[in-house]
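Protein: HMA domain-containing protein
Species: Sulfuriferula nivalis
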Amino acid sequence: MQHTIINIKGMTCGGCTSSVTRVLSAISGVSEVNVSLEHANAEVTFDPDKTTLEAMHKVIDGAGFEVG
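Structure follows.
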């Protein structure tokens, strides 16, 4: 398992963090997600054999937020 922190722009409320948590958790290979509105990021534990950082960035963008 691998651990990463993804900075996310555009989150303004608890609904935003729920949306990001939902889309990241739905990715095959992601085992743990902790999204922080205060720190504007997501801590993700994932299996690099099953998913990539690019895939995570894509679903975050698709949910209406910006990785950065």
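Remarks: The chain has one domain: 2-67.
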